[in-house]
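Support request from a user on the community tier.

User writes: "When I paste my C-alpha cells into the form, the page sometimes reloads and wipes my input. The last time it worked, I copied everything first. Here is what I submitted, just in case something in the input itself triggers the reload:"
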C-alpha cells in the first residue's frame, strides 16, 4: 500500500509538470552521466572512486531560459583508486569479484544550462558489498573483509608501511592516516591484505617506528596497498606499493629539507584563480627528477592549466582537481556534437543566487531553475532503460 502511494504521488508530480523520460542510450544522456560521475568523485573526500556501469533511468525537466534539469539514476561500481588520487575514474581498475565487489546506484540531479554548462545540484549514492556467503560459494579461498579497526588490519598496515619507509628514498617518512579496507584469507596460506592512506611524519625519519602525523588536519599525501603472507614472523612475505599523490620535484638532503609534500596537495585548486607571475631570474635552477629506488607507483599529475574565467554567473567558488583537467579534454570532445556539454570554468556545483535589494538599470529577469525535493522514480517506458552495462560482473 505504501509503495502504491509513493508511485501515485510521483505520477501526479509528473502529470503536474512537463517532466519527461529520455532513452538511456541518448548521446546527451551518456555524456551527462559520465560528467556526473566525474563530479561525484571530485566532490567526495573519503573512500574510493566510483565508475559508471549503467544508466538505469533518466528524466528531464525543461526550465526554459534557465536550461534543463536532468534526474539521472546511475549504477556505479567501486574502483581501486582512492578519491584523492589524481587518476581519472575512467582509468581506474574495477574491484574484482574475488576481492568482494561493491556496487550500488547514485540518484544524481544535474542542471544543464542554455550556455552548454552542466552543474551538479545533488547526488545520493548507496553502495553495498557482495555478501560473504555469495563469495564463498564461488570462491571458497578468497579473502573476506575485516573491520578496518581490527587488530589484524592495524598490524598489517604498520608492518607494510615500515617496509616502505625503509626502502623509500624520499626525504620524508610516512605514517598510517586511515585504513580504508582490510581482508584476510586462511587457505591455501594465511594472508592479510590492507589498504590505507598515509601522512607525513612530524619528526626526523625513523625506520623502526611509526611517527606522529605532521599535519593531522591536512589531506593524506598518498595511498598504500600492502599484504602479509604467512604467520611465522621470520618467514613472512611482506609486500607494499604506494601512490604518492603529489611527489616532490626536488630531492634534497633530509636535514636541509623543510618543505613537505602536503603543501603541494592543493596546488591545482589554488592556481585556477591565481594570475601567473614569472619569478625573477635570481639564480639558475636546474630541474631535477625524483628517483625512487623502491617499487612504488607514483602518479604524477599534469600541470594545472589556468582556465579562462567566463561570464557564467551560477558559481562563486573554484574547485578543480587533476581529474578535472582530463575532463576538460573530454568536454571539448563532447562539444563537437549538436548539444554542447562542457564543464563550467569555475565551480561545477550549483549555487543558488540571491537577489540583492538594490535598484539597477538592468531589467532582465533572472531565470532560476527549480528542483524536485523528492527524486522522481517513475519507471521508464523506453526499452533502452536500463542501459547496457559497461563492465562484466558476476
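"...and here is what came back when it finally went through:"
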Amino acid at each position: 500500500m505504501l509503495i502504491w502511494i509513493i508511485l501515485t504521488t510521483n505520477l501526479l508530480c509528473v502529470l503536474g509538470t512537463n517532466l519527461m523520460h529520455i532513452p538511456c542510450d541518448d548521446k546527451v544522456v551518456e555524456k551527462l552521466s559520465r560528467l556526473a560521475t566525474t563530479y561525484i568523485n571530485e566532490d567526495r573526500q573519503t573512500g574510493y572512486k566510483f565508475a559508471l556501469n549503467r544508466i538505469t533511468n533518466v528524466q528531464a525537466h525543461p526550465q526554459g531560459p534557465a536550461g534543463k534539469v536532468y534526474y539521472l539514476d546511475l549504477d556505479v561500481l567501486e574502483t581501486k583508486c582512492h578519491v584523492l588520487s589524481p587518476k581519472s575514474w575512467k582509468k581506474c581498475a574495477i574491484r574484482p569479484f574475488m576481492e568482494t565487489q561493491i556496487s550500488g546506484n547514485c540518484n544524481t540531479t544535474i542542471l544543464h544550462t542554455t550556455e552548454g554548462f552542466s552543474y551538479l545540484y545533488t547526488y545520493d549514492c548507496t553502495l553495498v558489498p557482495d555478501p560473504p556467503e555469495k563469495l564463498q560459494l564461488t570462491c571458497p579461498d578468497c579473502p573476506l573483509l575485516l573491520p578496518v579497526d581490527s587488530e589484524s588490519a592495524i598490524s598489517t598496515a604498520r608492518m607494510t608501511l615500515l617496509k616502505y619507509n625503509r626502502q623509500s628514498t624520499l626525504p620524508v617518512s610516512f605514517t598510517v592516516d586511515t585504513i580504508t579496507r582490510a581482508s584476510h584469507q586462511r587457505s591455501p596460506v594465511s594472508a592479510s591484505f590492507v589498504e590505507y592512506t598515509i601522512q607525513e611524519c612530524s619528526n626526523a625519519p625513523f625506520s623502526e617506528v611509526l611517527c606522529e602525523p605532521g599535519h593531522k588536519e591536512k589531506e593524506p599525501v598518498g595511498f598504500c596497498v600492502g599484504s602479509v603472507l604467512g604467520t611465522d614472523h621470520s618467514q613472512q612475505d611482506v609486500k607494499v606499493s604506494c601512490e604518492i599523490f603529489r611527489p616532490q620535484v626536488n630531492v634534497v638532503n633530509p636535514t636541509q629539507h623543510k618543505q613537505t609534500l602536503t603543501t603541494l596537495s592543493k596546488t591545482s585548486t589554488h592556481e585556477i584563480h591565481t594570475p601567473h607571475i614569472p619569478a625573477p631570474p635570481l639564480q639558475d635552477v636546474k630541474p631535477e627528477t625524483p628517483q625512487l629506488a623502491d617499487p612504488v607507483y607514483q602518479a604524477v599529475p599534469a600541470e594545472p592549466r589556468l582556465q579562462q574565467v567566463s561570464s557564467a554567473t551560477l558559481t562563486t567558488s573554484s574547485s578543480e582537481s587533476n581529474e578535472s583537467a582530463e575532463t576538460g579534454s573530454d568536454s571539448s570532445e563532447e562539444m563537437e556534437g549538436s548539444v554542447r556539454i562542457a564543464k563550467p570554468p569555475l565551480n561545477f556545483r550549483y549555487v543558488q543566487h540571491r537577489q540583492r535589494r538594490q535598484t539597477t538599470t538592468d531589467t532582465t529577469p533572472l531565470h532560476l531553475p527549480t528542483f524536485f525535493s523528492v527524486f522522481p522514480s517513475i519507471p521508464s517506458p523506453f526499452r533502452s532503460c536500463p542501459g547496457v552495462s559497461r563492465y562484466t560482473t558476476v
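Agent notes: The reload is a front-end session timeout and is unrelated to the input. The two ends are 34 Å apart (CA to CA). DSSP finds six helices and ten strands in the chain. Escalated to web team.
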